[in-house]
Predict the 3D structure of the following.
Amino acid sequence: MADILEIRWHGRGGQGAKTAALLMGESAADAGRYVQAFPEYGPERMGAPVTAYNRISTEPIRLHCSVENPKYVVVLDPTFLGTVDFTHGVKDGGAILINTPESPEEWRKKLNLGDKNIKIYTVDASKISREETGGNFPNTPMLGALIAVSSVLDIDKAIESFNKDLTRKFRNKPDMVGKNLKAIRRSFEEVQS
Amino acid sequence: MKVRKALTGNEAMAEAMRQINPDVIAAYPITPQTEIVQLFSNFVADGKVDTEFVTVESEHSAMSATIGASAAGSRAMTATSSQGMAYMWEVLYIAASMRLPIVMPLVNRALSGPINIHCDHSDAYGARDSGWIQLWAENAQEAYDNLIQAVRIAEHSEVTLPVMVNMDGFIISHGLEIMEAEDDDTIRNFIGVRKPVYHLLNEKEPITMGPLDLQDFYFEHKKQQADAMARSADVIREISKEWKDLTGRSYDMLEEYRMEDAEIAIVALGSTCGTAKVAIDQLREQGVKAGLVKIRVFRPFPKEEIAKALAHTKAVAVMDRAESFADFGGPLFRDVRASLYECDSRPKTISYIYGLGGRDVTLDTITQVYADLQRLVKGEQVPMLNHLGVRD
């Protein structure tokens, strides 16, 4: 059985964790991979914690359970620190990507990672989003950071896929497409380790 | 021509419904089915289908309007989940007894109470004896394929019964997966046009449908319904074969996974079967002869196929994703156990109630069942009735 890359997304209801997982899934599908993208639903409301997942593989995926040991964890909202355990189950050699202006070293301490073989990457996705789109939508820029860190997709091809999917999503706000794509590209370039 | 797509289960069902292009849909939204009818109403608004979309005030009305439309001779559909189908309860029986070939996606969700919106199979099990054919899917692909085949099965002149097409709520309905869709012409040629023998709008041959039917004929009509259900198995096999010739995707009453030499096996319905296949591959690498029987058609029940698939095994775990409060396992357990009764040598058969209210069923959960079966084969004591992974 081929390896399955597993990803977990943490966000608040309304920040687009589910949308990010779907966009990641669709762009990996465009790249010819087998994918899953699914949210862990509760009766959540705007602002409540939301988790979403991706599985990506070169072979069909038959597992139908939640992801227990993700290689990558993407945190859209760092203010959950202390409430949600971002480090839970992360694979040895995996990484946590955080939307924050702070440095990876600071977050290594905050998450008490010690000498665990887990890398921290940070990018100020909220700032990038505000500057490029005029609003705080950290989900799309975090896609850029994830692609930079994971190298699972070619960024230019992924941007083509996002362009297609965002054009459909923003049918009534077409100017948002280019702005989001720019935010994704910036985050791809600005993510720090 | 096939198109490779990344779709959620709900999107796959809605896409199949668009291609089926039914004459009438009457539906009411309920989580996790909502997206299916929402997407379909977009197709209606965008002029992509010719369907008369009836917005109703409840599921009881949804099924009633679907029954009326189907009795008038049209191809009529609806879709629901859980409490929605519970609210259709009495009319489900009317649809079946009036021999109306209605096709309905059921996005499986727990029944209240306690209130829960997540996956289990208590809704479909509740309708087990209503006279509907029940098809079950492991993933979005199978949900799509089953829904299209369901139209042919329901409308076949040897059958004329309603068909419920089950898909696990959230796990499949809201999960994006890769699947193949056929093109519109392929589907339209495959399903053709409904040609009802009797219908209410035929003024040349006026008929009454659904009248009072007392001691004189009620029994005979029920026997006819039972005969149609019995005949439907051959029709399902025939249409599955036609679908395979058309699409390359193979279906039968059930699917056997690595059963040829299996000593221990799980029998289950729905999305957990995928996880079980991965568990089996891992166990096989360790030399454990594990297998799976995935039930695709729960009604009519594939009793001969079950006996044939399991007779050579030593121990079988039957998994039910609903509690039926019989104190004798779930409905699937009892049906499988009864199917094995006539076998000369029978495997030991134990029951697992699992995954209620959306409780996650992981690889470890499944592996634990196979470990129990191995212990049973060794002669150790394993209870007949189990609630998998439940806390005391």
Remarks:
- The mean pLDDT of chain A is 95.
- The helical segments of chain A are 17-30, 104-110, 125-133, 139-150, 155-169, 175-190.
- The longest helix of chain A spans residues 175-190.
- Chain A touches chain B through 22 residues (CB under 8 Å).
